[in-house]
Every structure is written in structure tokens, then in C-alpha cells.
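User: Structure please.
Assistant: Input sequence and predicted structure:
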Amino acid sequence: MSSNKFLIEEIIDRALVEDLGRGDVTTEALIPGDQRGAGFIVAKEEGILAGIEAAKQVFHRVDRELKVEVLLTDGTRVKSGSRVARVSGSIASILKAERVALNFLQRLSGIASETNHYVEAVKGLPVRIMDTRKTTPGLRSLEKHAVKAGGGENHRINLGDGILIKDNHLAVLRSQGLNIKEIITKARQSAPLSLQGAKRRNNLRARETQIEVEVGTVSEALEAVEAGADIVMLDNMNIKDMGKAVKSIRGRALVEASGGITLDNVRAVAETGVDFISIGALTHSAKALDISLELEAEAAF
């Protein structure tokens, strides 16, 4: 997450403002500011850990004097009772940071764990599990990090990361009289230089931009490949038609399956021979992993 350091800090600051508001009136009324103690962040169920650095930053944003000892790193499989980190210092500060830190840990570990379920379901097959842009608004960088912690890969981070011609793009342009080949040519010619790859040292032409096209039928998949698509996304296609599409494409383009993918059918989808499987549920439907903070006053240590 280091490449997004300032963005992560901004996310954490917003979360703290949201939770602390005018302050923690309960803690301020009951706990002396100089009372010290320590606690362990503990997993309460099995899963894949993610978000430990974000949680650590939360504690430090609340109080730079807090000591956070990370015991397990992102991507580690935890079980019920696993100690993830130890936090020590001002009890009041720990309590003020607790909920936000745990929210990040629980949410991101849930995403990592859900991703890992899918990765394990297709183990042994030459396919990659990928996320989508169906993320919590404002939390995309953290959630996509969690997908990677769970063994998955990131699709586009944002709309500027690659050209993906979807059904609505096709509908608009076809209404203007363009066919699929003309649409792909237009996209390739109009792509920004940032997507065209680095120029070679001998000043040869830059590598062409990769174009992905979303299709819903076998005939559309074949049409897209023949029109020059580099990647074909099979959207909400049944298993039988996916297999037909992959055979029709015959390696002339990479193939992505998307839409309607569940743990029950993901292996069958992978067995059709697709190269990627993108799954919105990794981020929009993951169940939070149960993680808590067990805190004790200093006298107990």
C-alpha cells in the first residue's frame, strides 16, 4: 500500500473524523489520560488477514506515542485465537482508535478471505481470479490491496487504466452506424499515449493499446476477435456457451469470464479454458472477518 500512502492517510483521516466527531465522550469521562495499558488484536475465526498496516496507521494517527507491534502480516492465514498485533500506550488513545482500526481489518480481511475461497476453488487450473470496480466508494485502493492479499489479481483500478468497450459503448456507437471493427479501430487510434506502452530504444512504433470488448453471445465473441479485440469478456454467459466461445476464439485473444460467478460454479467456469475470471462479489459482498481487541490495564501486565 506504500504507493498510495497519501490516499490511505486521507481515507483514515476521514474515517477518524466520522467516528470521533466531537471526541470520545465516554472514554474522556471515565479513563484518565495518563492511564496506560496494552491489548492484543485477535482473530475470532479462520481467514486471510488484510489491512494490518492500515490499522497500524489508525492507531498512530490518533496517538503517535502508541506502540503497535505487528505479529502477522497481510496474506497470512489466521485461525480463531490468532494474535495479529499488540498495541500499547495510553488506554484512552487505544480506545479512541479501536473501532476504526478494527473496521478496516475486518472489512479488508473479509475481502481477502472471500478472494482466497475462489482462488482455492480453481486451484490447479491455469486461470486467474480478478476483482472489478464494484468497490466501496472511496475505499477502492484498500479493497483491491485486500484482493491481492487473498491471492487474487486486480482488474482496472479506475477508468483510466485500460480500454474496455462495454455493451452501452457498443449500443451508442452502433446507433451511429459503426460496426465492431470500426469501433475497435477508433478506440485504438484514440487511446492516450499513456496506454500505448513505452517506445523502444530504437524509436520503433510503440506497442499497440490492448482493447477489451464485452460480449454476450458466442457469435459476438467471434465477431470481436475477428475485428481485432485483444481480450474478450464473456458477460453472463452460461457454461456451455463459454466453452464454445473459447474454442471458437482458439487462442487468438485472451478470454475473461464475468457475471454470475459464484463459488458453486467458478471451477466449472475455469474448466472452459478462460484466462481470467472477474468477480464483483469479492469486494461488494464479502462478509467481514471477526476480529477484536482484547485490552487490559497496565497493572495486569
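The chain has two domains: 2-113+287-300, 120-284.
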